[in-house]
Structure formats: C-alpha cells, structure tokens
Design goal:
heterodimer; A: alpha+beta; Double Stranded RNA Binding Domain; 7-stranded mixed sheet; 6-stranded mixed sheet; 10 helices; 42% strand; globular; B: alpha+beta; PmbA/TldD fold; 20 strands
Chain lengths: 465, 445
C-alpha cells in the first residue's frame, strides 16, 4: 500500500475517527519519499544510500492543544489505529460531523525536466567525478576529496477536517564537494555545495568543476592562513551563504514556534523598528525551483512571499496553522516538517536580506580594521535570548580598506536583536545558497541569501590576542 | 506483512537473483513525548515506525537500500535497487558479512518501565510546576517534558546469523527561562532513565539554579587563561571530535590520528573508553551494525592512543580487526564507524578542587554551534560559550557572549587534571567529568 493508493473514503474515515474525542480540527499527512545519495571518496564510488520512506502523520487540535501520532504502517488497519492513538489523548466523547474531502490543485510553479527515477546512477557518478577531479588538481596539498550527489523525490498529500485535500511533489537535487588540504601534520578543509528544487538538470544549471575548484581553493587558502585575531571588530559578510547570519540571528526568532510562546526577543514587536533602516528581509517560498521552495506547505497552505522586515520595521512573523490560533494571526504558508514522523511547525523557506544601495567596494573600503567573512559555515541560535553563533569557513583580514591575508578558525557570536541594528551597509548583489536547517520538526531544505553586508561591530572568536 | 514474512520474501528474491551473500537489518520503534507549558499539556506526540535495510554482494561490491514498506512488490524492488547500487560501487575493499558462531557478551541495560501517557503528562506538568515554584524569577515561558522510546532490532544474513536486540529509553527534561529586569537566561536540563523513577525535584533544583546562576552574565575580557571545562561542555566537545577516532576516517585520510596508535597523544591523566556495556547507558546492544560482537576497550589509556575504532571493512583496509564499531545512524544510513558509549574516565579530584587548582581562569559550562565551529578533520574549534570566571580558586561571576578557541588535539595534551564528577549523556552515548586545561583562548570584550 502506498500513499497514493489510499482511497478518499478511508482518509475521511481516519479524520472522523481522530475527532471522536473532542478535537475541533484533524489533519492527515501522507508521505512517499524516494531518495538516493551517492558518495564519492578519492575518485571512487564509496557508498550509495538509497531510501524509501512512506508513512502517515495524524494531528488533531482541541483549542490550543495539539496531539500528533505517526505510523509507517499504511494499511487501513494501521492508519485507523494511528487515528485512535491521537484520539486517545483527549478525553471527551463526541459524534464528529461527517467529513467530505474536496481535492484542490494549487498548481506547480517548479517545473522539473528530468525526474530522479529516470536518471541512472552512472550519470550522477560522472558529474560527481568531474567535480571531484577538478578539486584534486587545484593544488598539490589537496590530500582528500569527497563528494555527494543527492536527489530526493518527496510526495506529500494533506487532508484535513475543513475538507481540504491537496498534494505536492517536491524534487530536489544537490551536489556537494569537500576537500582537505594537508601539510606538516595539519589539515584544513573546504566545501562547496549547490542545490535546487530540480531534477538532474541541476548539472546544466551549475558548473560541476567550479564546485570542486571552489571547495579545494578554500581548503588550500585556509591551510596557508594564520589564526584569526579575537575581539570586537567591524565585519563584512559575503553574499550567498553569508545570509545564514540573518537565518540564525533573526529568522528563527521570527518563527511562530518561538514567538507564540513569548520565547523570542521579537515577540510583541510587530510594527516596531527592530533593525537598521537599511535592512529589508524576506521569506519567499514561491521562488521558482529554489531549494527551499514549495507549492503548498505541509499543512496544505499555498506557499507565499512574506516580507518579514521592511526598512528595519518588523512586518510579519512566519506562522503555521496551529500557532496561528495562539497568536490570533493568519497562517503564512510556513508550516514545514522533515517527514511524516515529525509534527510540523513554522519554519523558514527561502529567506534573504534584500539588495541595498551600497557598492561592494564602498563596503570594503569603509573598514579600517576588520574581518571579511567570505564564506560562512553553519550556526545556531537560542531564540529565547537571541544569542547566536556561527563558524566562518573562509575569512580574510581587512586593513586600511583593503582585503588582506586569510585567517582560519574565526567564529561570530552575538545577539540577534543587536546585530540587525548594526547591519549598516547593504550591497546590491543578492545571491542565494542552499542549506539544511535542523529544528524541532526535523531537517528541512532552506535557502539563505544576502548581498555583501557590513556589521559595524560584532564579537569575533579567534585565537590570536 | 510482518518482518519475518518480509525477510523470507527478500531472501527468496535474493536467491532467485543468484545472490549468495546478503543481509537484512530491521528496526521497529515506538516513542512518545509530552510537553508541558503554562501548567497545561502543550503537545503530545507518539510514533510507531519500522524500516529495513538490505545489503548484498553483487559484482564484487556491497550495495544497500532501505524501505519502510513491507510488501511483496517492495521486497522485489528492494533487491533490484540494492543490486543496481552495488554494481556502481568502486571502492577497493574486501566485502565482508559477519560469520555465524561468534560469541556475544550479554547486555544488561538499565530497565525502563512502560508508563501511560496520562502518567507522562502528569510528570511533565509536575516537573514544570517544580521549576516555576522554585524561584519567582523563573518565567511562564519555561517548559518541561517527558519522553520514552522502545525499539527492537533484528539482523539476519546469508551466513545464518540471526541476532535480536532491544533498546529502551526515557527522559524528563526542563527548559528554564529566568528573568531579572531586562536580563534573560535560559538553561536546559534533563535526566535519563525510567521516567517514573527520575528525581524530578533534583532536576528542577539543578536546572533552575543553572538559569539563576547565569543571570547577569556579561562578556569576559579576551585573553589566554586556564580553563575548567565542565562535564556537559566537555561531553559536547568529545562528541564533536569523536569522528577523529574512526578508523574509517583514518584510512580515508580524514583523521590526524592515522598511524598514531601506540604513541602519546594526550596527557597522562587522559583515558578515553569506548564501552558498549557502560552501565548507565540505554544504548547497550551486544552486536554492532553489521552483527560483530560489541566490546569494551580503552581508546586512549593514560595518554597513549591504544586503538582507533573499526568496522569490518575499515579494519581490513588498515590490516587489523573490527572493534565492533559498525554503526547505522538510522536504518537507511550506510554503515559507518561510530563509538558506542564514549567517555573520558573520571579522575579523583572534585569539581571544587579543580577550580582551586586553576586559581584564576574560566569555567566553561556550555558550548554551542559545534556543527559549524568545530572541525574533526583539523581539530580546530571556535565556539560560543558560557560559564563563570574563576577567581582565587573559586567560581566567580557568570560570563557569556564569548568564544573559546583552540585545537582539540593540542587540548588533549594540555589537560592537567581530571575531575571525579562524571556525567554521562545516555541519549547521546557520550560522557565526561570536568577537565582542567592549561590554557585556552577566550574572545570576549
């Protein structure tokens, strides 16, 4: 039994069964996901992870309470037992109204030309080899190269007690190369990754060799770098994955999962000036074929573009249906989950700082002494306090308005509400970059992005005093 | 169909395809968690999952594929996909499945009793109330929760091996938010075990105290100073750098510990154990992810690297034997080398005595962002941290908004004292006591 073969009458029966104990809303989510990731190590195919996931998640609300249960057993018996498990958590006994599902088609704005199942492993391996070989030729110190080609075909169906029946098919592909440079008992690594909500045509949208060269160049650059000095300084953060600063420092704190519970430093601040007037930030799940895009979110709400901060003023949070109740605000198409066994909550899609008016040259030349964080690593945040951190994968010192020597081991720490007030220059060249974001509803594909920005001062973690 | 029926179908199909070496690994789990917020149950979730991973030798290589559908059609698809994947593998390594007739030690994991959801909800609410009532500065957006999980694992292969194991786990957690004026702190605490036997009062007291202690924290001065790394922070560091002890990473050129067996890589006082039968752990399974016997060993003993960790393939490539460390991060993940229960062996001095030895320095109680700020390949780390200053040998004012930076391999050589205050994180399978490190770079004001 696969999700697509579950009859509508059974879905209706499941929703009705889930509501027999007093729930005022029920939702059934069905998932059928095939994914493959091919791992190349030092020129040879090292492993292939090939996974089929199918299952169902059932959720009910009663006022501000939610109950969730999931199962990988998609037989009628398994699904009804799962409905009984959610119902069992509430205590009233009611005769629920009959549910009539009506299918809605929201359309697909993310066309896919070559679906993963129609692409042979061999073709993906050829691309991986091309990217990894390019990495190996960058410099004699490159000692190790590995690469991953991942593709995912994620089909979902959402049915709820309001009668909605909707589905989406989300296909994503991603190429990642990691390289290690070694010299005199020291290792430094670099990586580069490109992903989009497309099939194998990814390889025509990107230059695989360039992915390998970028990863290896970063490793070699960092091998030749000294340690980053520590202390407060002015920092220019590069475009593309640099946008992870907004993702960590502010994005998570604008998710209803934190805001609805007062667990965010931005709670209760709609309409207020929370950021520098130079900052406009957007979450947009509708960018065609972008890594974090979708047609509908995991509660069946169509994806949309939400301006979060406009010229420094807080305009919107990212809200899922359940937290919408608590907040008394509409859902924004941001409800997401890794899969059927995760309860969905508000998450980011494609989140970026919009282009500003400063030129890259002006931003760099304005810095007498500081850091140019060209490539960011990942990071994390505690939304309650707003304290965030992230690693800098490739960094350079700036002296006298000029980019100077590379430095390794840098990290940036601060408080979200502080740092967005200190973003005082915003460049023009917006770039987006694919990432994976982990939170309570699992690991999901999200896009970060920004043009080059300047943060007037931030704590840089390093080793040289 | 159930596992037994599915296994028979898969093995039947494998034979029909001419395969002679194959294996099916199966895991079935059920788990529940309940959160309490503002005196009420905030959320309840319960999951029941099963998945299986098939591996086979085809054209001289091992391929794998996994599924969560247990039907006759899927058995056929699974075998076909696995063979296709195997035919693409190129790595040069021996293809090995574990043989029958091996001797396995008996695991005696901590008992975790079955509790009703009503009882779990009650415990979560009680824990939250204990936290709220402990101090007026504890705010209404604090949370508490309970979690239980029960899993069974089966491994069958064409050598006639049939192994089964069980994992049972439970925990109560508290997320305490404290507020004093404009200053907010938040701390997380948990206890593992049978949720009905966990000392809720102790957990509340400890977590609330941590949150209150860190109120009023500010950034310390930048500089280089001695550091006491508290158990939770050291456990996070050990987990982040544990891949450096993987023999698989070593043979792939990803570990600086390659070829260092038998040499001194740490201070005399450092002993690191990998013990699948560590008594406090839930994670006690007598066999590893490919069915080899799990066994206890010192990885570092009194500063000397004794062994790296190996599965069958990496051991063969390194010319040694499996240490029983083949792991499946999830049923669908490829086999990789991972520690079982990995911990720094405690010493004899108390946490207070360690601060006294440090005299002036910094006590690190929390480190954040390890996935980005720590690289096991280079050993470098630069991490957002929180803790306390140590002045005149005693814990002084709280500090936050700073980073500590260094290199893990250098840090191991700079350990000058090891505490007796062992804390083991049973959910992660890592643990450590407090450590005193001669010097660490602090970046604050």
């Amino acid at each position: 039994m696969s999700p697509n073969s579950i009859p509508r009458s059974l879905m209706e029966q499941i929703l009705e069964r889930a509501m027999t104990t007093g729930a005022d809303y029920a939702e059934l989510y069905l998932e059928h996901t095939g994914s493959r990731s091919i791992h190349l190590m030092n020129g040879s195919v090292y492993s292939i992870s090939d996974q089929l996931i199918s299952g169902a998640g059932i959720r009910i609300y009663m006022g501000l309470r939610s109950v969730f249960a999931s199962t990988s057993d998609l037989t009628g018996k398994g699904l009804l037992a799962c409905a009984d498990r959610v119902a069992g958590a509430l205590a009233e006994s009611v005769q629920p109204a009959a549910i009539h599902l009506r299918e809605r088609i929201f359309g697909d704005i993310h066309p896919v030309r070559i679906v993963p199942a129609d692409t042979a492993n061999r073709d993906k391996i050829d691309v991986l080899k091309e990217a990894c070989e390019a990495a190996g030729t960058v410099h004699e110190t490159i000692s190790q190269v590995s690469g991953v080609f991942l593709d995912v075909d994620h089909r979902i169906q959402v049915a709820n007690s309001e009668g909605l029946l909707a589905s989406d098919r989300q296909i994503r592909s991603r190429l990642t190369v990691s390289a290690t440079a070694s010299l005199n008992g020291e290792n430094q690594s670099g990586s580069c990754s490109h992903g989009h909500r497309v099939g194998f045509e990814l390889c025509e949208m990107i230059e695989p060799r360039a992915v390998g060269v970028e990863a290896a160049t970063q490793a070699v650059t960092m091998l030749n770098a000294g340690y980053c000095p520590a202390g407060k300084m002015t920092v220019a953060i590069g475009n593309g994955f640099g946008g992870v600063i907004f993702h960590e420092a502010c994005g998570h704190s604008l998710e209803a999962a934190s805001v609805a519970y007062g667990q965010s430093e931005f709670a209760g601040k709609l309409g207020q000036q929370v950021a520098n007037p130079k900052v406009t930030a957007v979450d947009d799940g509708t960018i065609p074929n972008e890594w974090g895009s979708m047609n509908i979110d995991d509660e069946g709400t169509p994806a949309r573009k939400n301006v979060l901060i406009e010229n420094g003023i807080l305009k919107s949070y990212m809200i899922d249906k359940f937290n919408a109740r608590r907040m008394g605000l509409p859902a924004t198409g941001n409800s997401r989950r890794q899969g059927y066994d995760y309860e969905p909550t508000s998450r980011m899609t494609n989140t970026y700082i919009a282009p500003g008016t400063d030129s890259d040259e002006d931003i760099i030349s304005s810095i007498e002494y500081g850091l140019y964080a060209k490539k960011m690593g990942g990071g994390s945040v505690n939304p309650i306090t707003g304290e965030f951190n992230f690693g800098v994968a490739e960094a350079y010192m700036i002296r006298g308005g000029k980019i100077c020597e590379p430095v390794r081991g840098a990290s940036l720490v601060g408080k979200g509400s502080d740092v967005i007030r200190k973003i005082d220059m915003v460049g023009k060249d917006l770039q987006l970059a694919a990432g994976m974001c982990g939170a309570s509803s699992g690991r999901i594909p999200t896009t970060v992005g920004q043009p080059l920005i300047r943060v007037s001062d931030i704590t840089v973690g390093g080793r040289n005093q | 169909m159930n596992y037994q029926e599915f296994k028979d179908k898969v093995f039947e199909r494998a034979c029909a395809c001419g395969l002679t070496e194959y294996e099916l690994y199966y895991m079935r789990s059920r788990s529940s968690d309940i959160g309490a917020f503002e005196g009420e149950v905030k959320g309840f979730s319960s999951s029941e999952d099963a998945a299986a991973c098939f591996r086979c030798v085809y054209r001289g290589h091992i391929g794998s594929a996994s599924t969560s559908l247990f039907t006759e059609d899927e058995a056929e698809r699974l075998v076909a996909h696995t063979m296709e994947n195997a035919s693409c593998i190129e790595k040069d390594e021996p293809v090995l499945f574990c043989k029958g007739g091996l001797v396995y030690e008996k695991a005696e994991p901590r008992m975790v009793s079955e509790v009703s959801t009503a009882q779990m909800a009650e415990l979560a609410k009680r824990e939250l109330k204990l936290c709220r009532d402990a101090d007026r500065r504890v705010t209404g957006n604090s949370e508490a929760g309970t979690w239980t999980s029960h899993s069974e694992i089966c491994l069958d292969n064409s050598n006639g091996v049939h192994l089964t194991g069980e994992l049972h786990a439970g925990a109560v957690f508290a997320q305490v938010v404290a507020k004093d004026g404009e200053d907010v702190s938040s701390e997380y605490g948990f206890r593992c075990g049978s949720v009905d036997q966990i000392d809720l009062e102790e957990l509340a007291r400890e977590t609330v105290q941590k949150a209150l202690d860190s109120l009023g924290a500010s950034a310390p001065d930048s500089g280089v100073c001695p550091a006491v790394i508290a158990p939770e922070a050291m456990t996070s560091l050990l987990a982040a750098f544990s891949p450096a002890f993987s023999g698989e990473n070593a043979v792939n050129g990803l570990s600086l510990l390659k070829g260092k067996e038998g040499t001194k890589i740490a201070s005399d006082c450092v002993t690191i154990m990998d013990n699948p039968f560590y008594e406090e752990s839930f994670r006690q399974i007598p066999f590893d992810g490919e069915g080899m016997p799990a066994r206890c060993k010192a990885v570092i003993e009194n500063g000397t690297l004794k062994t790296l960790l190996y599965d069958l393939a990496s051991a063969a490539r390194a010319g040694t034997e499996s240490t029983g460390n083949a792991s499946r991060m999830s049923v669908s993940s490829p086999i990789s080398v991972q520690p079982t229960n990995f911990y720094l062996r405690p010493g004899t001095v108390t946490a207070e005595e360690i601060c006294a030895i440090a005299k002036d320095g910094i006590l690190i109680t929390g480190v954040q962002g390890l996935h980005a700020g720590a690289s096991f390949v280079s050993g470098d780390f630069s991490l957002q941290s929180s803790g306390f200053l140590i002045r005149n040998g005693r814990k002084d004012r709280p500090v936050k908004s700073f980073t500590i930076a260094g290199n893990f391999f250098e840090l191991l050589k700079k350990v000058t004292a090891v505490g007796n205050d062992m804390k083991f994180n049973s959910m992660r399978g890592f643990g450590s006591p407090s450590l005193l490190v001669k010097e660490i770079a602090v970046s604050g004001k």
